[in-house]
Every structure is written in structure tokens, then in C-alpha cells.
Specification:
homodimer; Tetracycline Repressor, domain 2; 0% strand; DNA-binding
DNA sequence: TGCTTAATGTACCGATAGGTATAATAAGCT
DNA sequence: AGCTTATTATACCTATCGGTACATTAAGCA
């Protein structure tokens, strides 16, 4: 009952994702969003709550749509292969020609003033989930004998995520896909072998 | 001739650096700055031009005061040592207990809306200068036989800077100095040996 | 055909953004 | 002292921020 919505919320959310990804959370204004989505302010607020709610929705969409490769990557046969797939998959996302370069999560969190500390903490927490997933995989690998027993998995998970974050910054600055794959090439040279 | 300035521009610039470093370029308002500096708006504009000019001044100060270790680091005996000093020195800056965590350059550049693209490009250019200094050092090392001839220095310079950027993001998210040094530990494991 | 309900378009809210006009003030110079 | 000059303090500018009140429009239901 009542008037029908004249726009597709899923399509609108896709556009919001593009805008937030290009401009970051604080750099995006409600007017930026409504113009790009082709809807009015009250329609946006009625459909998505407030700016913070909308951003969280776009984060969910981003993870399900662009970061989903990580689950599969972690299921690779070896820990080394899992990590390389993780990094290379992330490079593809960061330099997807159909989207603004860089990572929604990283672009949003870095230069977030304390006025929006809730968002900052949310992004840090989500990043930590990914790091912990990788950590679990490395610990499993160590039990399997696939990862040296004298290495500290947490140190490696932290390293891998750090390399990813660095590439995200570079991507946002216009780095090419090839450049970032060469970063992965070098980063993987650190990988430990059982024989030392 | 004329009335004397009642504040020390150098001191004021130090405070501006702290504020910009904590809040980023766009996240810092003129009111944030004048309150912290203890001066009025017209005094700020008279002494430093506009917000963008002031930010560039703080960038200069930041580089001369906090990033100056890089020059010395690059003069180390071996390329490997130079790179390790570079990364460890950067960790110290990122987690300096006397300053807000993270890097002024990184925090400012990542989520900068295109309204301030001039600043974004300035920061990217300054970062590129540092990467090129490292690149020059690695190429010199290769001439000296201190770096394998079959390695591509540009790939390694890019890798090292990327690790630095990743650590900068982590630092801004609250990473400890110890955590970041462990990232350097792992990152240096990639370093190439002449015998392969 | 009303009646209800929900989405729309317009126009607005107070707060804050970066930046400035203007007048009062304090110094050096003659 | 009186003039000039540069810095202050107050008050204001326009534009935009996130968010909303309100009247209008379009749909389903009786």
C-alpha cells in the first residue's frame, strides 16, 4: 500500500558504493550521493537511514561483491598459495577498471576525523576480521606442517595485510595493476621455507 | 615598523603540524587550527596565507623535522642496511609518542576529495621523490655489486615504499611500535642475496 | 469513489566550512 | 607629539554540511 518507490535501492546502493569509494566517507556529501543516485534527499534518508547507515550498507555490499574472493583464496592447497591469491586478488579489486581505484575500507579509514570515529573503528574492526581469518589459515598450515613451526603466524598475517594496505594507498594514488603485481612478486620473496 | 606579532610563527607551525597530523588535511578546520595555535583567524591568514599554504608549510616542517633520517639512512654501507634503516626509522616516526600516530603525508592523501586535488597531487609527488631517492641508492648499489644485477631496482623501491605506506595506515589505526618493527622483520626477509 | 499509506519535490533548519572587511591597537620613524 | 605600518579583535560574508517539515503525488484497498 502507498506510492511505489521510483528507484531501485540495489542500483542506488551500487552507485553509492562507487561514490564513497572515490571520495571516501567524509569526502562524500549527501548532495554527491543524491546527484549520482538520481534521487532526492528525503528519498535517500527514507530508504537508507542516515549517511552512516548508508555507508555501512555500502561496506557490506563491497565485501560481498568485491572482497568475496578472499574466502576462496584462503582455501588454496598451501598457505603460500593462499597468501599469494589473497594479494593478487586484492590487486585486481584495487585496480578494477570499472570502479574508482583503491579500497573503500582504506580510503574511508585513514583520514577520518574524530567526528566520525565510529566509522573509523568500524573499518578497523572489519580489517581485523580479515587479518584474523588469514591468521587462522596460517595456524592451520603450521599444524599441517605446511608452515614452519618456528615462525610466528601473527607476524606473517600482519605483514601480508600491511602489504595489502600499502598497495591500497598506491592504487588510490593511481598505481597500475602491473606495478602492484610486481609489489606482490617482491613481497612473496619473503615467504619462509621449511629448510633454513 | 608596525605592531609586533604577538605569537611565534615557528611555534604556531609546530602546533599546526600536530593538528594536521591528527586530523588530516580535510578533517582539520581553520577553527581547529586557530584554537590550538591560540591565535585568531586573521592572524593565521596574515601569517600563513590560506589553509593550503599553511598545510604546505607544515609538510615542509614535517619533512625537515621528522623525515630527515631518510637522508642518513640511505648513506648506510650496504643497500640492505639502508633499506632497513629507512623502514625502522619510519616506524619510529609513525609511532612517535610525542606526536599523533601515523604519517602526515599518508593521512592527508588517501581520502582527499577532488575538491582538494592539488593537495593530493602534491603529496603523491613528494612521496615519489622519496621513492626515487631510494631507487637511485639501489641503482648505485647494483653498480657497486652490492645488489644483484638480475634484480630490478624499481621493483624493490616500490615494494619498500609500499610496506612503509601499509605501516603508516596501521599506525594511524593504533598499531604499536613493536608490531610495526615485526612487520619490518618479515619485510626484510624478502631481501635478495647474490647467490640464488 | 473515497480513504489510507508511502514515496516524492520543495524548501528549509541550525551548524559549520573557508575566508575577509573593518576598526581598534601597538610599534618604529621623523 | 604625529604619521605610518603591521598586527590584532570583532563581526561578518557566502557556500555547504547533514538532516528534516510539509505539502503533494501515486499507489492499494474498501
Amino acid at each position: 500500500m502507498g506510492r511505489h518507490r521510483e528507484f531501485d535501492p540495489d542500483e542506488a546502493l551500487q552507485i553509492a558504493l562507487q561514490v564513497f569509494r572515490r571520495r571516501g566517507y567524509e569526502g562524500t556529501s549527501i548532495s554527491d550521493l543524491t546527484e549520482a543516485m538520481g534521487i532526492t534527499r528525503p528519498s535517500l534518508y527514507a530508504a537508507f537511514g542516515n549517511k552512516e547507515d548508508l555507508f555501512r550498507r555500502t561496506l557490506d555490499l563491497y565485501e560481498h561483491q568485491h572482497l568475496c574472493f578472499a574466502r576462496e583464496a584462503l582455501q588454496a592447497q598451501t598457505a603460500r598459495d593462499a597468501v599469494e591469491r589473497l594479494l593478487r586478488g586484492y590487486v585486481e579489486v584495487l585496480t578494477d577498471p570499472m570502479s574508482p581505484p583503491g579500497c573503500l575500507g582504506v580510503n574511508g579509514a585513514v583520514a577520518c576525523s574524530e567526528a566520525n570515529e565510529a566509522i573509523r573503528e568500524e573499518l578497523i574492526a572489519r580489517r581485523m576480521v580479515n587479518e584474523n581469518n588469514l591468521l587462522d589459515r596460517l595456524e592451520r598450515a603450521r599444524s599441517d606442517g605446511d608452515f614452519p613451526g618456528d615462525e610466528v603466524p601473527a607476524d606473517w598475517a600482519r605483514y601480508v595485510v600491511s602489504v595489502g594496505l600499502g598497495m591500497a594507498v598506491r592504487a588510490a594514488s593511481g598505481a597500475s595493476r602491473e606495478e602492484l603485481h610486481r609489489v606482490v612478486d617482491v613481497a612473496m620473496r619473503a615467504w619462509p621455507t621449511a629448510i633454513r
